[in-house]
Amino acid sequence: MALEQVNSIIKSIDSGQIAPIYALMGEEPYYIDVISQYIEDRVLSEAEKGFNQIVLYGRDTKVEEVIEHAKRFPMMSQRQVIIIKEAQDLSRTIEQLADYAAAPQPTTVLVLCYKYKKLDARKKLLKAIKAKGVVFESNKLYDNQIPEWIKKVLLGRGRHIAPKAAQMLADFLGNDLSKINKELEKLSIVISQSQEIDAALIEEHVGISKDYNNFELQSAIAKGDKVRAFAIAQYFANNPKNHPVVMTIALLYNFYSKLLLYHSLSDKSIAPKVLGINPYFVKEYQTAAQIYPMKRVSAIIASIRQIDMKSKGLGTVPLAPKDLLQELLLAIFN
Q1: E strand or H helix at 214, and its extent?
Q2: Nearest-CA neighbor of 246 among 316, 321, 175?
Q3: Structure pTM?
Q4: Is the distance from CB of 111 to CB of 140 less than 8 angstroms?
Q5: Helix axes of 214-222 and 226-238: crossing angle, nearest 10 degrees
Q6: Predicted pLDDT of residue 314
Q7: What is the Cα–Cα distance from 330 to 298, expressed in whole angstroms?
Q8: Radius of gyration for the alpha carbons in the chain, expressed in angstroms and rounded
Q9: Residue 80, beta-bridge partner list
């Protein structure tokens, strides 16, 4: 949804429908940066920017100064642009903008980049911006939404990625969209547009082993392949920096939680939607369900929780990653 909203805002700007005030807020900073940078780059020409574009930072300015700048008229330009980065640092006084937002200067484009937080919907400022401008809320994506996000971003660039490759990237890079986007930009440069981005290309250009990664560990466990699973765990133990045990624990907890949910479905055809997975991976859950009955899955989830606590040193002496991984697999396969 966020990607569609961003595209809609950008199209409006390109068509000349530019709002006098934008509130860009929420936990995910990536889209806030995308929109604010687009406004900074595109609304004014290079010749106009010198006198009519101001970038301020919340920690270094006051609301009174923002209002003073916003009420000025542009010089030799149709409009002026004022961008307030890190506007969340003005959280104690930002409501003082409410009166200005209710009657904004039509020749000013005021952009509030309010990261990691949200303006209070009950108060006057946000209500005024909704009435006169644009409000964009950037929510953090869940881990299971990242592969689909990768796919959509690449499709927007005329690229295609295999489901396994998208999952590998998501497992390796986490849910930091800015970090992921940098890798996608790199892949778009070094890989021919006619090529589908597959696991081998990810290994070559990103540095993720196509044989020793969390995706392959989950696959081995789903198939009940103990030898393969322990071999991957040994690789992880020898490369703890690239394969932190906390990520492996989180991934397997997520897998078995979904497997438990899969067991509970009377209509397995709705599994992709309910589990939030690509249909490509349903077969993996079908196979795992035959190996791990529901009662066993519940016991494994309980063991993973205990191992997670040990990984954080809660109630015990912290264990080495190698020992944690071994205990994790023993809990699964015993």
Answers
A1: helix 214-222
A2: 321
A3: 0.80
A4: no
A5: 160
A6: 75
A7: 15
A8: 25
A9: 108
